[in-house]
Write a structure and sequence with these properties.
The chain is α+β, with helices and mostly antiparallel strands. 44% of the residues lie in helices and 16% in strands. The strands form four sheets. It has a five-stranded antiparallel β-sheet, sandwiched between helices. Strands 6-7 form a two-stranded antiparallel sheet. It has a two-stranded antiparallel sheet with strand order 8-11.
Length: 320
Amino acid sequence: MSKFAAFEQFEEYQYQDNSRENRRNRPGSPKHKQKNGRSRQPMQDIREMDDGIENWVPSYAKALDPKHHERQWVIESVGPFYRDQIVTDVTRLVKGGKEANVYACTGHPATGVDLIAAKLYRPRELRHLKNDAVYKAGRQLRDAEGKEMKGRRVKLALSKKTSYGKSVDIQWWIGNEYRTQTQLFAAGADVPKPIAHQGNTVLMAYIGDEYGPAPTLSEVRLPREEAAPLFQRIMDNVALMLDNHLIHGDLSAYNILYWEGGVYLIDFPQMVEARHNPHAYELLERDITRVCDYFAGYGLKTNPVALTHSLWDPYMGPGG
Ligand SMILES: Nc1ncnc2c1ncn2[C@@H]1O[C@H](COP(=O)(O)OP(=O)(O)O)[C@@H](O)[C@H]1O
Ligand SMILES: [Mg+2]
Protein backbone atom coordinates (compact mmCIF):
# COMPACT_ATOMS: atom_id res chain seq x y z
CA MET A 1 0.00 0.00 0.00
CA SER A 2 1.41 3.40 -0.88
CA LYS A 3 2.05 5.84 1.90
CA PHE A 4 -0.95 7.91 0.91
CA ALA A 5 -3.28 4.98 0.49
CA ALA A 6 -5.16 5.69 3.70
CA PHE A 7 -5.99 9.16 2.56
CA GLU A 8 -6.84 7.99 -0.91
CA GLN A 9 -9.21 5.45 0.55
CA PHE A 10 -10.80 8.10 2.64
CA GLU A 11 -11.10 10.39 -0.34
CA GLU A 12 -12.50 7.60 -2.45
CA TYR A 13 -15.00 6.79 0.26
CA GLN A 14 -16.19 10.36 0.22
CA TYR A 15 -16.13 10.37 -3.54
CA GLN A 16 -18.18 7.20 -3.77
CA ASP A 17 -20.74 8.71 -1.49
CA ASN A 18 -20.89 11.92 -3.42
CA SER A 19 -20.92 10.24 -6.77
CA ARG A 20 -23.78 8.04 -5.73
CA GLU A 21 -25.60 11.12 -4.59
CA ASN A 22 -24.88 12.87 -7.87
CA ARG A 23 -25.98 9.94 -9.94
CA ARG A 24 -29.23 9.79 -8.10
CA ASN A 25 -30.01 13.41 -8.70
CA ARG A 26 -29.17 13.43 -12.37
CA PRO A 27 -32.09 13.28 -14.76
CA GLY A 28 -32.03 9.95 -16.52
CA SER A 29 -30.65 8.12 -13.52
CA PRO A 30 -32.54 4.94 -12.59
CA LYS A 31 -34.70 6.88 -10.18
CA HIS A 32 -36.11 9.00 -12.97
CA LYS A 33 -36.61 6.16 -15.41
CA GLN A 34 -39.34 4.25 -13.73
CA LYS A 35 -42.20 5.14 -15.99
CA ASN A 36 -42.38 2.34 -18.50
CA GLY A 37 -40.55 -0.53 -19.92
CA ARG A 38 -40.65 -4.26 -20.07
CA SER A 39 -36.90 -4.44 -20.08
CA ARG A 40 -36.51 -2.55 -16.82
CA GLN A 41 -37.21 -5.44 -14.53
CA PRO A 42 -33.64 -6.33 -13.54
CA MET A 43 -32.78 -2.67 -13.32
CA GLN A 44 -35.71 -2.03 -11.06
CA ASP A 45 -34.61 -4.74 -8.71
CA ILE A 46 -31.29 -3.05 -8.34
CA ARG A 47 -32.96 0.30 -7.96
CA GLU A 48 -35.25 -0.95 -5.24
CA MET A 49 -32.39 -2.46 -3.35
CA ASP A 50 -30.49 0.75 -3.71
CA ASP A 51 -33.43 2.89 -2.69
CA GLY A 52 -33.90 1.02 0.55
CA ILE A 53 -30.41 2.07 1.52
CA GLU A 54 -30.33 5.54 0.05
CA ASN A 55 -33.59 6.47 1.71
CA TRP A 56 -32.80 4.92 5.03
CA VAL A 57 -33.80 7.22 7.86
CA PRO A 58 -33.26 5.72 11.31
CA SER A 59 -35.95 6.38 13.95
CA TYR A 60 -33.76 8.82 15.85
CA ALA A 61 -33.18 10.92 12.74
CA LYS A 62 -36.88 10.89 11.81
CA ALA A 63 -37.62 12.90 14.90
CA LEU A 64 -35.17 15.62 13.87
CA ASP A 65 -35.86 18.56 11.63
CA PRO A 66 -34.85 17.50 8.09
CA LYS A 67 -32.59 20.57 7.91
CA HIS A 68 -30.84 19.73 11.16
CA HIS A 69 -27.24 18.90 10.34
CA GLU A 70 -27.22 16.10 12.92
CA ARG A 71 -29.82 14.24 10.91
CA GLN A 72 -27.67 13.99 7.80
CA TRP A 73 -24.57 13.32 9.86
CA VAL A 74 -26.16 10.31 11.56
CA ILE A 75 -27.57 8.94 8.32
CA GLU A 76 -24.28 9.29 6.47
CA SER A 77 -22.14 7.93 9.29
CA VAL A 78 -24.26 4.92 10.21
CA GLY A 79 -25.60 4.28 6.67
CA PRO A 80 -22.61 2.12 5.62
CA PHE A 81 -23.26 -0.19 8.60
CA TYR A 82 -26.92 -0.39 7.69
CA ARG A 83 -25.88 -1.30 4.15
CA ASP A 84 -23.53 -3.97 5.52
CA GLN A 85 -26.34 -5.37 7.68
CA ILE A 86 -24.66 -4.68 10.96
CA VAL A 87 -27.05 -2.04 12.26
CA THR A 88 -30.81 -1.92 11.65
CA ASP A 89 -31.73 1.32 13.42
CA VAL A 90 -30.43 4.25 15.44
CA THR A 91 -32.77 4.72 18.37
CA ARG A 92 -31.35 7.41 20.64
CA LEU A 93 -28.53 9.78 21.42
CA VAL A 94 -26.66 8.39 24.40
CA LYS A 95 -24.35 11.32 24.95
CA GLY A 96 -23.27 14.29 22.90
CA GLY A 97 -19.80 15.69 23.39
CA LYS A 98 -17.46 18.21 21.85
CA GLU A 99 -15.51 15.60 19.94
CA ALA A 100 -17.97 12.79 19.46
CA ASN A 101 -21.60 11.76 19.87
CA VAL A 102 -22.53 8.26 21.01
CA TYR A 103 -25.79 6.75 19.72
CA ALA A 104 -27.69 3.60 20.63
CA CYS A 105 -28.43 1.33 17.65
CA THR A 106 -30.16 -1.98 17.21
CA GLY A 107 -27.94 -4.71 15.82
CA HIS A 108 -28.78 -6.83 12.80
CA PRO A 109 -29.59 -10.41 13.94
CA ALA A 110 -26.53 -11.62 12.00
CA THR A 111 -24.25 -9.76 14.42
CA GLY A 112 -25.63 -11.60 17.44
CA VAL A 113 -25.67 -8.31 19.35
CA ASP A 114 -29.01 -6.69 20.19
CA LEU A 115 -27.75 -3.23 21.01
CA ILE A 116 -24.78 -1.45 19.50
CA ALA A 117 -23.16 1.82 20.50
CA ALA A 118 -22.03 4.00 17.58
CA LYS A 119 -19.42 6.63 18.39
CA LEU A 120 -19.40 9.33 15.74
CA TYR A 121 -16.46 11.71 15.68
CA ARG A 122 -17.08 15.21 14.48
CA PRO A 123 -14.55 15.72 11.68
CA ARG A 124 -14.29 19.47 12.18
CA GLU A 125 -13.73 19.06 15.88
CA LEU A 126 -10.91 16.58 15.58
CA ARG A 127 -8.33 19.22 16.23
CA HIS A 128 -9.72 19.50 19.76
CA LEU A 129 -8.89 15.90 20.54
CA LYS A 130 -6.25 15.37 23.13
CA ASN A 131 -3.77 14.86 20.32
CA ASP A 132 -1.01 16.96 21.74
CA ALA A 133 2.65 16.08 21.71
CA VAL A 134 2.35 14.15 24.98
CA TYR A 135 0.18 11.51 23.40
CA LYS A 136 1.78 11.45 19.99
CA ALA A 137 5.34 11.40 21.23
CA GLY A 138 7.12 8.23 20.31
CA ARG A 139 4.20 6.91 18.37
CA GLN A 140 4.43 6.17 14.69
CA LEU A 141 1.84 7.58 12.42
CA ARG A 142 -0.35 4.77 11.26
CA ASP A 143 -3.11 4.50 8.74
CA ALA A 144 -6.54 2.98 9.33
CA GLU A 145 -5.17 -0.54 8.98
CA GLY A 146 -2.33 0.04 11.35
CA LYS A 147 0.36 0.30 8.69
CA GLU A 148 3.04 2.80 9.39
CA MET A 149 2.85 5.97 7.34
CA LYS A 150 6.01 7.81 6.44
CA GLY A 151 6.96 10.80 4.44
CA ARG A 152 7.57 14.45 4.85
CA ARG A 153 4.30 15.34 3.16
CA VAL A 154 2.18 13.48 5.70
CA LYS A 155 3.92 15.13 8.62
CA LEU A 156 3.89 18.53 7.03
CA ALA A 157 0.20 18.28 6.26
CA LEU A 158 -0.55 17.16 9.79
CA SER A 159 1.34 20.05 11.27
CA LYS A 160 -0.32 22.54 8.93
CA LYS A 161 -3.82 21.14 9.42
CA THR A 162 -4.60 21.22 5.75
CA SER A 163 -7.68 19.27 4.73
CA TYR A 164 -5.28 16.54 3.70
CA GLY A 165 -3.76 16.62 7.16
CA LYS A 166 -7.14 16.51 8.84
CA SER A 167 -8.09 13.46 6.81
CA VAL A 168 -4.94 11.71 7.92
CA ASP A 169 -5.80 12.68 11.49
CA ILE A 170 -9.30 11.27 11.23
CA GLN A 171 -8.00 7.96 9.96
CA TRP A 172 -5.34 7.89 12.58
CA TRP A 173 -7.46 8.60 15.63
CA ILE A 174 -10.38 6.42 14.75
CA GLY A 175 -8.25 3.54 13.57
CA ASN A 176 -6.23 3.86 16.74
CA GLU A 177 -9.23 3.71 19.05
CA TYR A 178 -10.57 0.68 17.25
CA ARG A 179 -7.30 -1.24 17.10
CA THR A 180 -6.61 -0.62 20.74
CA GLN A 181 -10.02 -1.77 21.80
CA THR A 182 -9.77 -4.89 19.62
CA GLN A 183 -6.41 -5.80 21.07
CA LEU A 184 -7.60 -5.29 24.64
CA PHE A 185 -10.84 -7.16 24.15
CA ALA A 186 -8.92 -10.12 22.71
CA ALA A 187 -6.60 -10.00 25.73
CA GLY A 188 -9.61 -10.33 28.04
CA ALA A 189 -9.83 -6.73 29.29
CA ASP A 190 -13.16 -5.28 30.49
CA VAL A 191 -13.90 -3.19 27.41
CA PRO A 192 -17.02 -3.19 25.23
CA LYS A 193 -16.64 -5.64 22.35
CA PRO A 194 -15.57 -3.71 19.24
CA ILE A 195 -17.75 -4.49 16.22
CA ALA A 196 -16.65 -2.39 13.24
CA HIS A 197 -15.26 0.96 12.19
CA GLN A 198 -15.47 3.04 9.07
CA GLY A 199 -15.00 6.70 8.26
CA ASN A 200 -15.70 8.77 11.37
CA THR A 201 -17.52 6.01 13.23
CA VAL A 202 -16.66 3.21 15.66
CA LEU A 203 -19.23 0.53 16.56
CA MET A 204 -19.04 -1.49 19.75
CA ALA A 205 -21.28 -3.46 22.07
CA TYR A 206 -23.67 -1.17 23.90
CA ILE A 207 -23.43 -1.42 27.66
CA GLY A 208 -26.84 -0.92 29.24
CA ASP A 209 -30.31 -1.93 28.16
CA GLU A 210 -33.24 -0.61 26.17
CA TYR A 211 -34.11 1.77 28.99
CA GLY A 212 -30.79 3.53 28.98
CA PRO A 213 -27.01 3.25 28.86
CA ALA A 214 -24.86 2.11 31.76
CA PRO A 215 -23.87 5.03 33.97
CA THR A 216 -20.25 6.04 34.33
CA LEU A 217 -18.67 5.53 37.75
CA SER A 218 -18.85 9.29 38.20
CA GLU A 219 -22.64 9.08 37.94
CA VAL A 220 -23.32 6.32 40.47
CA ARG A 221 -23.09 5.75 44.16
CA LEU A 222 -21.66 2.23 44.49
CA PRO A 223 -22.82 -0.15 47.17
CA ARG A 224 -20.02 0.18 49.70
CA GLU A 225 -19.08 -3.50 49.67
CA GLU A 226 -18.48 -3.33 45.89
CA ALA A 227 -15.90 -0.57 46.08
CA ALA A 228 -12.81 -2.60 47.03
CA PRO A 229 -13.35 -5.46 44.54
CA LEU A 230 -14.14 -2.99 41.72
CA PHE A 231 -11.04 -0.98 42.48
CA GLN A 232 -9.00 -4.18 42.28
CA ARG A 233 -10.69 -5.12 39.04
CA ILE A 234 -9.81 -1.76 37.49
CA MET A 235 -6.20 -2.10 38.63
CA ASP A 236 -6.11 -5.59 37.08
CA ASN A 237 -7.23 -3.98 33.83
CA VAL A 238 -4.54 -1.33 34.08
CA ALA A 239 -1.97 -4.13 34.63
CA LEU A 240 -3.34 -6.11 31.68
CA MET A 241 -3.07 -3.04 29.46
CA LEU A 242 0.52 -2.55 30.51
CA ASP A 243 1.21 -6.22 29.70
CA ASN A 244 0.02 -5.22 26.22
CA HIS A 245 2.34 -2.18 26.31
CA LEU A 246 -0.59 0.21 26.58
CA ILE A 247 -1.56 2.99 28.96
CA HIS A 248 -5.07 4.41 28.78
CA GLY A 249 -3.93 8.00 29.20
CA ASP A 250 -7.35 9.42 30.12
CA LEU A 251 -8.62 6.96 32.69
CA SER A 252 -11.01 8.32 35.31
CA ALA A 253 -14.48 7.72 36.74
CA TYR A 254 -15.81 9.46 33.59
CA ASN A 255 -14.41 6.79 31.28
CA ILE A 256 -15.48 3.71 33.23
CA LEU A 257 -19.00 2.35 32.83
CA TYR A 258 -20.67 0.49 35.68
CA TRP A 259 -23.12 -2.25 34.76
CA GLU A 260 -24.55 -5.21 36.63
CA GLY A 261 -21.83 -5.09 39.23
CA GLY A 262 -19.02 -4.97 36.65
CA VAL A 263 -16.94 -2.27 34.98
CA TYR A 264 -16.11 -1.40 31.36
CA LEU A 265 -13.23 0.86 30.42
CA ILE A 266 -13.99 3.12 27.43
CA ASP A 267 -12.65 6.03 25.37
CA PHE A 268 -9.26 5.03 23.94
CA PRO A 269 -8.16 7.48 21.27
CA GLN A 270 -5.43 8.95 23.42
CA MET A 271 -3.97 5.58 24.45
CA VAL A 272 -0.17 5.64 24.60
CA GLU A 273 2.44 2.98 23.94
CA ALA A 274 4.30 2.31 27.15
CA ARG A 275 7.53 1.36 25.42
CA HIS A 276 7.85 4.41 23.19
CA ASN A 277 6.19 7.36 24.88
CA PRO A 278 8.59 9.37 27.00
CA HIS A 279 5.67 10.45 29.23
CA ALA A 280 4.39 6.91 29.75
CA TYR A 281 5.22 6.73 33.44
CA GLU A 282 3.56 10.07 34.25
CA LEU A 283 0.43 9.15 32.33
CA LEU A 284 0.22 5.80 34.10
CA GLU A 285 0.60 7.52 37.45
CA ARG A 286 -2.10 10.06 36.56
CA ASP A 287 -4.51 7.30 35.47
CA ILE A 288 -3.95 5.38 38.69
CA THR A 289 -4.19 8.52 40.82
CA ARG A 290 -7.56 9.47 39.34
CA VAL A 291 -8.95 6.02 40.01
CA CYS A 292 -7.57 6.10 43.57
CA ASP A 293 -9.13 9.55 44.11
CA TYR A 294 -12.53 8.25 43.09
CA PHE A 295 -12.36 5.26 45.43
CA ALA A 296 -11.11 7.43 48.27
CA GLY A 297 -14.72 8.65 48.29
CA TYR A 298 -15.63 5.14 49.51
CA GLY A 299 -13.02 5.19 52.22
CA LEU A 300 -10.45 3.14 50.29
CA LYS A 301 -6.97 4.05 51.40
CA THR A 302 -4.54 3.57 48.55
CA ASN A 303 -1.12 4.84 47.60
CA PRO A 304 -1.14 5.75 43.90
CA VAL A 305 2.62 6.35 43.69
CA ALA A 306 3.40 2.97 45.26
CA LEU A 307 0.77 1.30 43.08
CA THR A 308 2.25 2.84 39.94
CA HIS A 309 5.70 1.59 40.90
CA SER A 310 4.34 -1.86 41.66
CA LEU A 311 3.18 -2.08 38.05
CA TRP A 312 5.85 -0.09 36.27
CA ASP A 313 8.99 -1.46 37.91
CA PRO A 314 8.43 -5.13 37.06
CA TYR A 315 7.28 -4.07 33.59
CA MET A 316 10.48 -2.15 32.92
CA GLY A 317 12.64 -4.85 34.49
CA PRO A 318 15.92 -4.28 36.31
CA GLY A 319 17.51 -0.99 35.40
CA GLY A 320 14.31 0.29 33.78
N1 LIG B 1 -20.26 1.09 24.62
C1 LIG B 1 -21.02 1.99 25.25
N2 LIG B 1 -22.22 1.64 25.81
C2 LIG B 1 -22.98 2.56 26.44
N3 LIG B 1 -22.66 3.85 26.56
C3 LIG B 1 -21.49 4.27 26.03
C4 LIG B 1 -20.62 3.37 25.35
N4 LIG B 1 -19.54 4.06 24.92
C5 LIG B 1 -19.72 5.33 25.32
N5 LIG B 1 -20.89 5.47 25.99
C6 LIG B 1 -21.44 6.71 26.58
O1 LIG B 1 -20.99 7.81 25.81
C7 LIG B 1 -20.20 8.69 26.60
C8 LIG B 1 -19.06 9.25 25.78
O2 LIG B 1 -18.23 8.22 25.33
P1 LIG B 1 -16.66 8.35 25.35
O3 LIG B 1 -16.10 7.20 24.60
O4 LIG B 1 -16.19 8.55 26.75
O5 LIG B 1 -16.42 9.67 24.46
P2 LIG B 1 -15.98 11.17 24.80
O6 LIG B 1 -15.71 11.27 26.29
O7 LIG B 1 -14.77 11.39 23.97
O8 LIG B 1 -17.14 11.99 24.37
C9 LIG B 1 -19.77 7.86 27.80
O9 LIG B 1 -19.57 8.65 28.94
C10 LIG B 1 -20.93 6.92 27.99
O10 LIG B 1 -21.94 7.57 28.73
MG1 LIG C 1 -15.03 10.01 27.70
